[in-house]
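for the recovery benchmark. tokens below, seq after
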């Protein structure tokens, strides 16, 4: 909720019944303008509210959306025969005493067609909801509604003219009131008391520009401690067991020698067998042959 510097007036916005959070609230040096940022929600309806806390005469709240006039609502002074509530709301553009078209956030179309490229003043108020509180003198009550049927056409702006604005305000389909709305005519009785400006952007844009706080990540619930963690001695013993297990595995890996078989190299057993075989051959060569009868021996 925004407040005027003298605390006589306040204003706020609700989106489908929920009051919006204001970010980066600022007041001008002359105290006449109070500005903030709000998060707009595409396709949702919203209502502008304001309250007269102390001023005892009639006031009028003038509403402008993206710089477009959307009518006003008069609150009568307490001295009047019929006193309106000090807290009023503007939920859309009046069509009649029984019907109105609600305000809603809509997407903003853009183009690179240079024929739509205009000066900066044309879209100066794009992305701004403006409420001005003005003192008035009521000249007539229960008058017939006049100057109504305003419309907020969907805009198509040049890419270089929209200044990072991605949404605009349009009117939703007509709705029916439960009770007829009364109208009054008035004339301005002095300069505006205060101007409330709500600059709207999607929440992601506000966060990206540091206007709204970053989204907090959900932290997992704390883990329940194990029985070992509850007992310091048991936890120390567990750590020692883990270290001992790793040392045993390391020592076993170190003591294990790889079995390497190389082709062309005989084993020790093969060499021994070959030696014994050679000895048998030599002994057989030295053993005298038996004499056979009738055999002729060459003695030369």
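predicted aa per position
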């Amino acid at each position: 909720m925004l407040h005027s510097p003298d605390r006589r007036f306040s204003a706020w916005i609700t989106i489908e019944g929920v009051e919006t959070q204001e970010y980066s609230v600022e007041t001008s040096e002359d105290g006449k303008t109070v500005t903030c940022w709000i998060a707009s929600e595409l396709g949702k309806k919203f209502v502008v509210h304001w309250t007269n806390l102390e001023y005892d005469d009639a006031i009028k709240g003038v509403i402008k959306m993206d710089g477009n006039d959307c009518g006003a609502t008069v609150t009568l002074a307490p001295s009047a025969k019929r006193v309106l509530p000090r807290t009023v709301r503007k939920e859309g553009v009046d069509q009649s005493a029984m019907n109105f078209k609600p305000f809603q956030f809509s997407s903003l179309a853009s183009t690179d067609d240079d024929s739509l490229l205009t000066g900066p003043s044309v879209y100066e108020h794009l992305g701004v909801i403006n409420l001005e509180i003005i003192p008035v003198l009521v000249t007539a009550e229960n008058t017939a509604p006049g100057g109504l049927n305003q419309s907020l056409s969907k805009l198509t702006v040049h890419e270089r003219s929209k200044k990072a604005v991605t949404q605009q305000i349009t009117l939703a389909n007509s709705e029916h009131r439960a009770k007829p709305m009364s109208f009054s005519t008035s004339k301005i009785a002095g300069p505006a008391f205060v101007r409330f400006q709500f600059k709207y952007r999607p929440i992601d844009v506000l966060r990206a520009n540091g206007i709204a706080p970053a989204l907090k990540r959900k932290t997992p619930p704390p883990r329940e401690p194990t029985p070992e963690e509850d007992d310091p001695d048991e936890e120390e013993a567990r750590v020692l067991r883990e270290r001992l297990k790793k040392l045993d595995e390391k020592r076993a890996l170190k003591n294990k020698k790889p079995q390497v078989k190389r082709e062309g190299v005989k084993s020790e057993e093969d060499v021994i067998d070959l030696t014994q075989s050679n000895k048998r051959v030599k002994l057989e060569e030295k053993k005298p042959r038996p004499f056979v009868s009738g055999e002729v021996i060459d003695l030369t």
